[in-house]
Design a protein that fits this description.
Distance between the termini: 70 Å
Number of helices: 3
Helix content: 55-70%
Order of helices and strands: HHH
Largest sheet: none
Number of domains: 1
Oligomer: single chain
Strand content: under 5%
Number of strands: 0
Length: 76
């Protein structure tokens, strides 16, 4: 059990990029839906992070859609 070799470092790097990429994408999705971008950091909650993010996006009323409905009602 010494220092990790080349293959282990490659796996660590790839997994790290995937985790950070997932968090960045979730932050961008939350920002585009009108939620605070920091809600995307919920993916770091162990075991349920991604499920929590999906449930929030699926079952809550997005601020962007609320604004759109309000503007459409004012227009009519």
């Amino acid at each position: 059990m010494g220092m990790p070799g080349g293959a282990e470092w490659l796996v660590i790097f790839v997994v790290g990029v995937m985790v950070l990429g997932s968090a960045v994408l979730c932050c961008l999705i939350f920002q585009k839906t009108g939620f605070p971008w920091a809600m995307g950091l919920l993916v770091f909650v162990p075991f349920i992070g991604h499920v929590l993010v999906l449930c929030i996006l699926a079952f809550t009323d997005w601020p962007v859609l609320r604004t759109l409905r309000r503007l459409q009602a004012a227009e009519a």
